[in-house]
Write a structure and sequence with these properties.
The chain is built from 18 helices and 25 strands. It is an alpha+beta fold. Strand 13 and strand 14 form a beta hairpin. It is globular, with a radius of gyration of 24 Å. Belongs to the glycosyl hydrolase 5 (cellulase A) family.
């Protein structure tokens, strides 16, 4: 019934859209709620500049958020992330206010966009565009992703242990693939290399057998054109780019071919073709978020394959290096005993930074996470903390204070996943009415959603809010030199502290106490617009303390142009907050320590902490 309602709504919207002139965008909407004087310019389309994302004011932007959502991989709502626009709006508000996100990777389904070969389902496109708009109107940036796993659900029979998503039924029928079987497989991902139906289907796509790649590209272009034409110019500005293909893998390699030559001679030409389709669809000013070979950064040596777009040269501003990272050792339950610790993924995410720099573009980790139920779920609190730590800085906490300039750029990332229907699904697995899935993600026994609905229908977090709703520099007016955040998230009843303030800064340590804190060091560029940090809900304005070369404050005042340290609502009307730091000088190093740990600190303690931090910055930052 949910699918029928969505389809009928989509038809009505589609018919309305057809009355408009072809290619014409709707009129621009009024400014989003809680906008300030600089937000209109800041919300111009993001670009890639000098190895980072930049907004319309030239500020360095960090994208943080979630994948919305694995529901797209299911059939219960017709390949849509939500059953209704109302649910999309509820999800967007919660993602901003509870999860601290400013960005979503928005999943789309090729199977539902093109259920009949050569015929794009405009009702589906209308519905996904409306759901996408719910996030844009909440001030959340979006980058769509044509998602696939195991090539297609239509490769799997009703009684299968596994399922897939992606290609439409007609594409599978064209291939006449063998009966699917993974053999002895403990994890669904083993199908990628062991299930001949999956490997042959993937191989055929990359070799354009039966014209399936041509058909996909044509549908992608029509989808992008539809989205561009049916969002206002202001809404479309919030669409960051497009992820052409989730987790690409050859299926099988040709004789003499390697993973590296496959990336060079097969995958990269596909991205060039997709890039041309973006240009034709009106997305010429937005980058393609291109993923390397799925296994390029696997942390199990037997799975790892050479890759990372090593032969693509300098890809520049029209492409973004886009990768995933999961700790397969931790997920295996065998290859990593115990839990993650300080700096666990510093090297893995450092490799991402290195490839991003070599490619001359911005980078993003568009999927990361860990199971929240099952035999290895006890590792989730530490694995999650270590992954976010590695996004924030390339250093372990133990060495951050002594070497802050080694911190590296703050990485963008979107966690897998944000699914309102977690644990409440009604999915007929592979269409089998005797296999109705309700638990977890309702997909191959996964359970990774950071959110669910409580018994009253309200979104609630399934992970520690201190882990998910984080302090981070969402927009830096200048260039970020170093950043760290000690979230004090919990593993059961244990508070995890991996980056305590060193004893060499006793007044700073006293000020922070056992509270959360973050420290940003940046170099100014003359902008009169402020540097912005997302303020978690655990940092209420009245009890947030900031110690900076710009001043000190215990309790944040409301923003004005002449207030160097201030608080304001984030745009979109969700009630989430941002810290605004204004320094309009040029090429000057600034710092700001932000903590929720101080309780009515004295003026003398604030002054002493500022003196310590100023001396530390002068010594450590050249």
């Amino acid at each position: 019934m949910a699918t029928l309602r969505v389809r009928m709504l989509g038809v009505l919207v589609s018919l309305t859209g057809l009355l408009a002139a072809t290619g014409a965008q709707p009129a621009a909407a009024a400014s989003l709620p809680d906008s300030l004087w600089f937000d209109a310019q800041a919300s111009a389309p993001l670009t890639v500049q000098s190895g980072h994302f930049a907004d319309g004011l030239g500020r360095e932007v960090v994208l943080r958020g979630y994948n919305v959502s694995g529901e797209t991989k299911l059939e219960e709502n017709g390949g849509l992330p939500f059953a209704s626009v109302a649910d999309a709006k509820k999800s967007a508000t919660a993602l901003r206010a509870l999860g601290g996100g400013n960005t979503v990777r928005f999943l789309l389904s090729w199977a539902h966009a093109e259920p009949v070969r050569g015929q794009v389902d405009t009702a589906y496109l209308a519905a996904v565009t409306d759901q996408m708009r719910a996030f844009l109107d909440a001030g959340i940036r979006v980058y769509p992703d044509f998602h696939q796993d195991l090539y297609s659900r239509y490769l799997f029979n009703e009684g299968s242990w596994y399922t897939g998503d992606g290609a439409p039924e007609w594409a599978v029928d064209a291939g006449n693939y063998p009966a699917e079987s993974c053999g002895i497989c403990l994890f669904w991902g083993q199908n990628i290399t062991q299930n001949q139906a999956v490997t042959k289907g993937s191989y055929d796509f990359w070799h354009n057998a039966y014209g399936v790649q041509d058909a996909f590209l044509a549908t992608a272009e029509k989808t992008m054109a539809y989205v561009q034409q049916h969002l206002t110019s202001d809404e479309f500005a919030g669409v960051v780019g497009f992820d052409p293909f989730n987790e690409p893998y050859a299926g099988t390699y040709d004789s003499g071919q390697t993973s590296r030559t496959w990336e060079k001679n097969v995958l990269w030409p596909f991205y060039v073709r997709f890039r041309a389709r973006m240009d034709s669809a009106g997305w010429q000013d937005k980058p393609a978020f291109v993923e390397p070979n799925l296994f390029w950064n696997a942390n199990i040596s037997s799975q790892k394959q050479e890759g990372g777009l090593l032969d693509a040269g300098t890809i520049g501003s029209r492409y973004v290096f886009n990768t995933h990272f999961y700790d397969q050792k931790a997920i295996s339950g065998i290859l990593m005993w115990g839990k993650a610790g300080d700096g666990q993924y510093a090297s893995d995410f450092g490799t991402v930074r290195g490839r991003t720099t070599a490619l001359g573009t911005a980078g993003i980790v568009s999927e990361f996470g860990h199971p929240l139920s099952g035999s290895v779920s006890d590792k989730a609190p530490t694995v999650g903390k270590a992954m976010y730590q590695a996004l924030d800085s390339r250093l372990p906490g133990a060495s951050w204070w002594s070497n802050p300039t080694g911190s590296g750029p703050v990485l963008s990332g979107t966690q897998w996943q944000w699914d309102l229907y977690s644990g409440r699904h009604h999915e007929l697995m592979n269409g089998n009415s005797d296999k109705v899935l309700t638990a977890g993600d309702a997909w191959n026994d996964e359970d990774l959603s950071a959110v669910a609905l409580d018994n009253s229908g309200n979104p609630v977090l399934r992970q520690d809010a201190r882990l998910l709703d984080r302090l981070y520099p969402s927009a830096t007016a200048g260039s970020a030199v170093a950043f760290t955040y000690e979230d004090r998230s919990r593993d059961g009843s244990t508070t995890l502290t991996w980056n305590p303030v060193p004893s060499s800064l006793p007044n700073v340590a006293q000020l922070v106490g056992s509270g959360q804190y973050g420290l940003l060091v940046w170099r100014s560029n003359g902008s009169t617009a402020p540097t912005e940090l997302h303020l978690p809900a655990s940092f209420p304005a009245a009890s947030t303390t900031v110690v900076s070369d710009l001043g000190t404050t215990a309790g944040l005042p409301a923003y004005t142009k002449t207030t160097p340290i201030a608080v304001a609502n984030e745009v979109g009307g969700t009630g989430s907050k941002r810290l605004l730091l204004t320094a309009s000088d040029t090429n000057v190093v600034h710092y700001a320590l932000v903590t929720s740990g101080a309780t009515a600190p004295s003026a003398s303690l604030l002054s002493a902490a500022r003196t310590e931090l100023s001396a530390w910055a002068a010594k450590q930052i050249s």
